[in-house]
Amino acid sequence: MLTEILINLFERDLSRLEDEITAYETEEAIWRVPEGIKNSAGNLCLHLCGNLQHFIGAILGQSGYVRERDREFSDKNVPRQDLLALVGVTRRVVLTVIVGLTPEVMARQYPERVPGDMTTDSFLVHLYGHLNYHLGQINYHRRLTQ
Asked: What Pfam families would the database entry show (predicted)?
């Protein structure tokens, strides 16, 4: 079932996000933006958590989360432990919501307007791809800045 697959993938890659943030030698390196790179790993981490907590937590799970997307890219020097705590909260929200999605909900149109007017199951796959894309950027950033 797709729900079980998504749970396993989000669990795995949110754990990988924690591993990447933990692997930085210094907190300063998490926030470094070398020439030719647009975003720091810290900002990408904030962006991923905001994205998932909005589209999965708030929209599908009615969590009450209010996204401040601009802050995902403007905040700087958030301590590593705060980033890791945020990833942990995001993981719990994502997994809790996905576990509760019925096949009927998964087959319905995603409840918020998104490009392509996707069904919920398709949009969750899209969100997983988004997570993985930025996870790769964070991995590259970490290796580049060490």
From this structure: DinB_2 (PF12867)
